[in-house]
Amino acid sequence: MHTVYSAAHAVDAHMIVHLLEQSGIPALVFGEFLTGAAGELPPGSLVRVVVPDARHIDEAQRLIAEWESATPCESDTEGDDVADPDGLPSPA
Q: How far is residue 4's CA from residue 13's CA, in Å, rounded to a whole number?
C-alpha cells in the first residue's frame, strides 16, 4: 500500500477516494477509526488515502493536486450572496 494523501478527517479522505475511483484508480482509506483515540495516540497523519499499486501513485497525486487547486465553478456558487466591493450583498 502506498500513501498518496494525508487527510484532516475521514470525510476528506473519502472524497479523495471517490475522486480517484472515478478515474479508475483503486484507493482505500486507512486510519479513519483511529481519530476516536486521538487523545491516546501521538499526533500525526492518522487518516490517509492509499493506493495498492505503485503504478498509480503519480496519477493519483496529479489528480489530488488538481482537485486541491481547483476553484468552484460558477454554477457551484450560483445563488450564493456575493458581496460588492463595499461589502454589501448584491441585489437579487
A: 10
